[in-house]
Amino acid sequence: MNETADAKLFSLMKDPASKDNGFLQLMDAYKRPLYWHIRRLVVSHEDAEDILQETFINVYRFANSFKGDSRVYTWLYRIATNECTKHFRKNKNWLKNAELMTDQMMGDISGNDTDSSEAMLVKFQQAILQLPEKQRMVFNLRYYDELSYEDIGQILNSSVNTLKTNYHYASEKIKQYLIEHA
Known about the structure:
This protein is an all-alpha fold and 182 residues long. The chain has a domain at 1-91: RNA polymerase sigma factor, region 2, helix turn helix motif (Rna Polymerase Sigma Factor, Chain: A). It contains nine helices and no strands. It has helices spanning 3-14, 19-42, 45-62, 72-90, 94-110, 116-129, 133-143, 149-156, 160-180. Helix 5 (94-110) packs antiparallel against helix 6 (116-129). The protein is elongated. The termini are far apart. 27% of the residues are buried.
């Protein structure tokens, strides 16, 4: 969506008579990109669904607190990213479960004579999962969501230079992981 359409949806949400309609339109516009952002961070579909639901509950509850200092989508991504961070803190074993899922996918791929590009995608995901939390978030937002460093800075409350450094280190670690596990 664009900023003008987002602003219209938020003005609908701030009007008590049309809050639900505006919220449903906003949710419809952002549920897919937010789901995939969350899913890349937590891996599990079930966890991603739960976190997406919590994200939209918070959007609905705190819509009146949005001041317009940032873009709507960066505000939404920030809420989703914060929910992922809460999930990581609550579920210390989430990484272990994610690694088990990728191991299972590798077994499925190797047993089905599938294309080696699928195996490479699984290894790529495994490499991303090995990154420290901040690097993983920065990498996903930049690589998959193609957000600018400025937008990522608003989402993660970090400076552009720090984000560039995190992205560089993440990229190097991913390359190294792929070389070692080729």
